[in-house]
Predict the structure.
Amino acid sequence: MKVQVDGVEIELAAGTSAIDAVFEAGGDVPYFCAHKYLSPVGACRMCLVETGSPRKEKDGSFVLDDATGQPKIFWFPKPMASCTMQATEGMHIKTARSSEVVAKAQAGMMEFTLLNHPLDCPTCDKGGACELQDRAFEYGYGASRFGFDRRHADKHYPLSDFVILDQERCIHCKRCVRYFEEVPGQEVLDFIERGGHTFIDTEEGGLPTGFQGNITDICPVGALLDNVARFRGRNWEYDHTPTTCTLCSVGCSITVDARNGRLERIVARENREVNEAWICDAGRFGHAFASERRLTVPLVRVDGELQEVSWDVAIAAIRHGMARHSVADLALYLNADSTLEEGVALEALADAVGSVHVDHWPRYEVSLDAMPNGAATLSDVATADAVVVIGADLGEEAPILELRILEMLRGGILPPEYAHGTAIADLRLVERPARKPEKLAVIGKESRLWAHAGIRASSNGHNALERLSRPDTAELQAALKLLTDSEKAIIVLGADVLNGASGSFAAQLSDLATRTGAKVLAIPAGANSKGLAALNLVPREGGLPFARVAEAPAAFISRLDPGVRARGLTIVHDSHLTATARLADVVLPAVTNYEKRGTTVNLEGRLLELEQAALSAGEAADLIRTLTAVSEALGLRAPVRGLKGARELAAQKLGIKLGELPERGVVHPFRTSHVAPTEQVHIPKLWTERMQPSIQTLIPANLQPLPMLGAAPVGGDD
Amino acid sequence: MSYFADKQPLVADIFSRYPDSPQGRRSALMPLIREVQDAEGFVNGTRLDEIAALCGTTATEVRSVMSFYSTYHTLPTGKYHLQVCSTVMCSLAGSDELWDHLVETLDVQPGEVSPDGRFSLQKVECLGSCGTAPLMQINDDGYYERVTPGKCARILDSLRADLQPLPDNPVPVTVNAEGRQTLANGEVVGASITGLGQLPPIFPGGEA
């Protein structure tokens, strides 16, 4: 399909929208309401272009222009919104670059949009990263002829604890309304009092938790603001660090914004393959711990009390404490959200000291690598024709997986990609999409996903798979039929079935997958469980699993909080003074995953990079550097002394090259190398206590409330 | 307390006017709101939830639709809901003075109901009777035209005695029990999917 944009002819795939045609041709069109992953509606009227198409005679030949002999272009009489217009063969498009009419229409539209927009950019959190600000500068007149009072409305209207609406700033692009309708499938926001005083509100008593924060990302102005980050910094003051979220095993791409060494804000970053443009509320708002009550120096127990010391003193204390133990007594435990590099370093140290007590937590004791039909990716889930979720509470285990399943229910339309990125307006996405709940079966405990599922079956975790294989109820029969009848079915497994699952479970699952042709997606217990499982990080012959840390002769516990100490020397490596750290002999300060460089592996087996955000963490160190110090205390030369060494070792052991990965990550077939009993049950919990934003702690205790004007009297004259 | 629980035939009748699909169910929103409002004078709170549940949507959606129309009320209205036209023609003919007079004598502001529960006031846009300005509509009963101070006082006196005077003219187009738009003389206007057959036949001859 050939389309001419501002006189330049380009070749386009059929179905491309006019706005994407312009961007594909290297042009620019301002827009506010269009969004890559939402339906185009043409609400803001900013993306106006002039378009025209050739017309055909009845015999199929083009109507020719008498003067030039070329097909005559029949122009639409007025500018058209390019986001809702499909580019067609031979279409001509004129943008503001070549059309005076378009330039004037856009400037006029800009003036109209700004009529009631307050000029409070200097105090607006969006300032500097505001689509309206940028487009007004690029396409506006630079002056307004509107000499009257602007509309006044509530500037601090809390839609929920996390999202504040400034009704004056809203330009009614409808992105947030469409987001809730189309993405999480909750119609909780809408325009109220349509007309001159339209505003956004909900009648449901607040926004549902889960995915509400995304509306603060997609708001093109400063109307919807992240309340956790509100008034915390200007956009140009933040140090933006593109990294990966490690709260769950999805591994969403995020940008961490830090200012003066404090983590102030987390926003979603686009990753078409993983989280598209969305992240969950826990990932967005649950970062309070990264800047609050951090451990910044090592602590050593002296006369029963933990005292702040230098690393050298801490190393000496470990050496002193280990004098009573052989080095092989030291149990090594790490959190399963540690990076692959850290896992490699710990495995190497365990090999070097000959410790058998090695474990990572949380994990399951089953290997599901050898499933037929191959590994499922998140894109596979979104484009599947049936999904059966067994024993999973996705809200706690992998929230974005829930969104990808909902995407499957509304047709699994993945917007195409162009040189300028994901399609700005995919015309196949429609408002109020028809959903197909019959394509989703949920088996297990009741969860948020139940509301969207056509087939629901209550079941215990431990026998859910067995019952599905030999269905004893109508619902389970329907679920099995759904799997059998579908061509691209996916089975999603969660904690309720994976806890305590054994080899026979894997065989049963493999059998079911073979029978039905379904792909299997097991949600790993920890953010990087999938990657760490490929290393020998489980109890070796005679070793103690993490559940029995209290029996270990001596233990090094990295960022885990069992709440007990080992029998002998207990070394805790953590970012906060946890209950376990309070019991420890030596506490070494750790960095959080926001401050690490390394690689994590998500539930698909996708390698994703972590980058270091500019947070102040004092003398805190990541696991690799900490293990170097521990090695020194043990009188060894650490086998891995840095990120580079860890990556070289990972290349040897796993045959993968870490570092310099593409932005979207690379899927690598990981194999679980060792399986061992865990002896405890993993209960997934996304929001932990320390993640709760504690805004109260930031308010000085002696602050007095300002005298405020009383509420305005009810009523008026209209 | 549910409003529609004991009115299943009515609900079924309203839904029967629309296609039997999720979208069709949503279309029943307006008559359901109207039904509650006719009975209770306003629609709010649990009634929104109830209507939302019937239509398969959310209370936000119901409020969104309701708030677009000035004829749906989210606040209680009085037994006599006085609607004063405030558009240019009536304004030129003295509707502003009429409004001020009503607010003062009845001592109610928009959104309020007088203590005796009789009166509530609302400014509305053009009612389409500019030739007889200033105009006032009481409930859905009809138009009170050329409301002069004397006429206004007479109307209010009668209303206070619960003797509502006959309107000068009926409301030109109303919705009847079948959900069809009808003229005051009973003639059905507009169209609905069930009533398509009742449209006048197209006369043959002549191209448009």
The beta strands of chain B are 80-85, 119-124, 136-138, 142-144, 173-175, 181-183, 188-189.
